[in-house]
Amino acid sequence: MRIGLLTEGGYPYVSGDAGLWCDRLVRGLGQHTFDIYALSRTEHQERQGWVRLPPQVGRVRTAPLWTAHDDGAVYGRRARRRFAEAYGELAAAVCGEPATGDPEAPEDPADAAGAEADRFANALYALAELARDEGGPAGALRSEDAVRILERACRAPGARRSARTARVPDLLAVAAHVERALRPLSLDWYEDDALGSADLCHAAAGGAAALPGLLARHLLGVPLLVTEYGVHLRSHYLAAATLEEAPAVRALLAAFHGRLATEVYRAATLVTPGNAHARRWQERCGADRAKLRTVHPGMEAARFADVGEGVPGSRCADPDTLVWVGRVEPAKDLISLLHSFAEIRRAEPRTRLRIVGAPAEDAEAAAYLAHCKALAAQLFPDEADGAHAVGDNPVSFEEIGGPDLPSLAEAYACGALVVLSSVVEGFPVSLVEAMLCGRATVSTDVGAVVEVIGGTGLVVPPRNPRALAEACVALLRDPERRERLGAAARARALELFTIEQNITAFHSIYLEIVSHSPVPRVVVDDEGEPRPFGTPAEARVPGRWTATRFLTERRPRWAEGAPVRATVPPPVPVAVGEGT
User: Fold this and answer.
1) From the DSSP assignment, how many helices (H) and strands (E) are in the chain?
2) The sheet that has 200-203: what strands, in order across it?
3) Residue 77 burial (CB count, 10 A)
4) DSSP-based three-state secondary structure for 231
5) How many angstroms separate the CA atoms of 324 and 443, rounded?
6) How far is it, in rounded angstroms, from Cα 213 to Cα 4?
7) Residue 412, Cβ neighbours under 10 Å: how many?
8) What is the C-alpha to C-alpha distance for residues 376 and 380, in angstroms, rounded to an integer?
9) Are the CB atoms for 14 and 49 separated by under 8 Å?
C-alpha cells in the first residue's frame, strides 16, 4: 500500500523531532511505499538537509512553516464574504461564543461542547474549501479584516472572560499565530496525484503535522492515522507557561489548539498514543476510546545486548556508583538529585554519582548545567585520601564519546543503579535504555514512568530528595535485589519496547485501517475513461500490467457535467397470434 507520512519539524530533516522513529518505521515496512510530506520549522533546519532515505520512499514534498506560502491569490467580493463567514465562525468557536443565540441551545455541557467542536470543524473545512476553490487564504489571514473579525468574536456576548480583556496587540499576536498554524491550508498537496493517491495518511504528531491529513480526509476521503508519543496540546501548554505573553493571548491560543486537537481526534480513523499517559490526555481532549491503540516506542535492543547479557569483556558495574543519563535541563530536576545524593553520602560515604548528559543546545541549558556544577562543588568539596593526595569530587559531569564513556551502553554499564529525577516526563527513553542494560532503577512518578517500569524498579514522588535517597540506599545495600530487578527490567523491555514490536503493531494497524476504510478509486485508461476490472489479480505481480492510473476525485471525469435525462425505449411490436 502507499502511505502518506506527515511530519512537522521532523523526518526527513537531519535535526528533526522523532526522525529516528520515522526512519525505523519506513525501513522496517519495506513492503509498502511511503510518500513523505514534511513541514519544516526553521530555515536552518532546511539548510541542514535530509537524512539518507531508504528505497521504499517514493517521493518527498516539503513546505516551510516558518514563512507564509502566498500563491498570489486575490480574493474577490464573493470570496472575501466566504472568508469572513468561515473565519468568523472559527473565531467564535475559539472565543467561546455560544453556537446560537437560541434559548433552546443544549443544556448538557457535553452537548454544548460537541456543538462548539462542530462549529470549529465546519469553519476549518470551509476555509479549506475556499483555499481549494479560490487559492490559499494566507493574505486574508494576515489582513486587517481578520483582526477585526477576531475582535468582534472577543467582544460578543457569551465570549470567555479572558477573551474580553484582549487588546489590539493581543489580537494581532493571536491572529499571527493562527495564520501560521493554518498555513497548510495553502499547500497544493490535496490533489489526486499527491495525498489523494495514498491509501492512508499517517501523521507522526498532532497539531500542524496532522492538519494536512485532516484536510485530505475531508476533501479526498483518505483515512487518517495519528501517532503521538508526546501529546501536541500538552507540549503547547508547557511551552506557553514559559512565554511572556498576555493572559488573553495564552487563553485564546490554548483554546485554538484545544479545538484543533479535538477535531483531529474525532476525524482520525485510529489514534495511537505511545503510552497510557498520552492516552489519558487524548481522552480528555475528546478522543474516542474505541479509536485508541497504544503502541509503545521501539528501542534498538541490539546496542545494549552485551551489557544487558553480561557478555565477558563488557564493562562491569561499580557497586557504589549511581548513574544519571539524559539532557541537562530544568525539567530533569538535577537540583533535587544533588540534594538527594548528599543524604545518600551520609548513609553510604563511598557512593559516587556520574551525571552523563548531552552537550548543551542553548544558553538556558548551559546556564542550568553551570548552576548544577556550582551546587555540586558547594555540596561536595573535593576529597582526598591523604594530606598530599589530589582531591576528587564524588560528582562528575561527563559526555558520551570520551575515553571513559565511548558509547551510551558504556554509560549505563558504569554504575549499579540508574536514577531518574524528572519532574516532567513523557515517555522515559533513558529508563528503557537502562532496563535493556539490565540495570535496577529508581525513578520519580511522572509521565509514563510507572507504565514503563511495571514493578521492575522503585518509584518515588517527584521533588522529594529524601524519598529518592532512601530508595537508592535500599538498593545499594541489597545487591541481590538489584540483580533480580535488573533481570526483570530487561525481560520487560525486550517484550514491550523493541523496534520489532513497534513495526509489527503498525503493520497490523495499516491493514486494519485500509480493510475498513478503502479509498474510493476509479481506474481509468489513457483517455480518462473508466476501465472495468482495472485492477486484476496479477496486478500484485511486477510487470507492465501494473501501470494503472487512478482517479480519486469525488466525481470521476466521465461523470462531470449536468445529468442527462434517461430516454424511454420505444415499444417492441408483437406479431399477431404470438403468445404472451
Assistant:
1) 21, 14
2) 57-64, 33-40, 2-8, 200-203, 224-228, 270-273
3) 7
4) coil
5) 10
6) 9
7) 26
8) 6
9) yes
Rounded to an integer, what distance in angstroms lies between the CA atom of residue 26 and that of residue 185? 26
Which pLDDT score is estimated for 565? 47
SS3 sequence of 500-547: HHHHHHHHHHHHHHHHHCCCCCEEECCCCCECCCCCCHHHHCCCHHHC
Are 6 and 40 contacting, i.e. CB atoms less than 8 angstroms apart? no
Reply yes or no on whether the pLDDT at 388 is more than 70: no
Cα separation, 518 vs 454, in Å, equals 38
Q: 23-43 pLDDT, tens per residue?
A: 999 999 999 999 999 999 888
The b-or-e profile of 538-559 (16+ CB within 10 A means b, else e) is: eeeeeeeeeeebbbbbeebeee
Q: How far is 34 from 54, CA to CA, in rounded Å? A: 10
343-362 pLDDT, tens per residue? 999 999 999 999 998 877 77
Residue closest to 255 by CA, chosen among 161, 323, 319, 172: 161
Please name which of 162, 147, 176, 142 lies closest in space to residue 246, comparing C-alpha atoms: 162
Q: Distance (Å, rounded) from C-alpha 23 to C-alpha 5?
A: 11
CA nearest neighbour of 297 among 229, 237, 201: 229
- Cα(24)–Cα(298) distance, integer angstroms: 9
Inter-residue contact 554 to 563 (CB < 8 Å): no
Which of 266, 293, 269 is closest to 279 using CA atoms? 293
Kindly write down the DSSP assignment for every residue of 418-479, as one continuous string: EEE--SS-SS-HHHHHHHHTT-EEEEES-TTHHHHHTTSSEEE-TT-HHHHHHHHHHHHT-H
* pTM score: 0.82
Q: Is 29 helix (H, G, I), strand (E, B) or coil?
A: coil
By the 10 Å C-beta count (0-12 exposed, 13-18 middle, 19+ buried), 116 is classed as buried
At 113 the pLDDT is 74
The grid coordinates listed for 271 are 489514534
Assign 3-class secondary structure to 132-162.
Answer: HHHCCCHHHHCCHHHHHHHHHHHHCCCCCHH
Q: How many CA atoms lie within 13 A of 485 on its CB side?
A: 23
- Distance, in Å, from the CA atom of 465 to the CA atom of 578, rounded to the nearest integer, reads 105
pLDDT digits (tens, 9 = 90+) for 502-520: 999 999 999 999 988 765 6
Higher pLDDT, 401 or 28: 28
Cis peptide before 518 (omega within 30 of 0): no
- Tell me the three cell numbers of residue 137: 487564504
Q: Residue 94's pLDDT is what?
A: 93
Helix (H) or strand (E) holding 57: strand 57-64
Q: Are 308 and 488 in contact (CB under 8 A)?
A: no
Which residue has cell 473545512? 125
Q: Where are the beta strands (DSSP E) in 253-310?
A: 270-273
Strands 200-203 and 57-64, bridge-based pairing:
unpaired
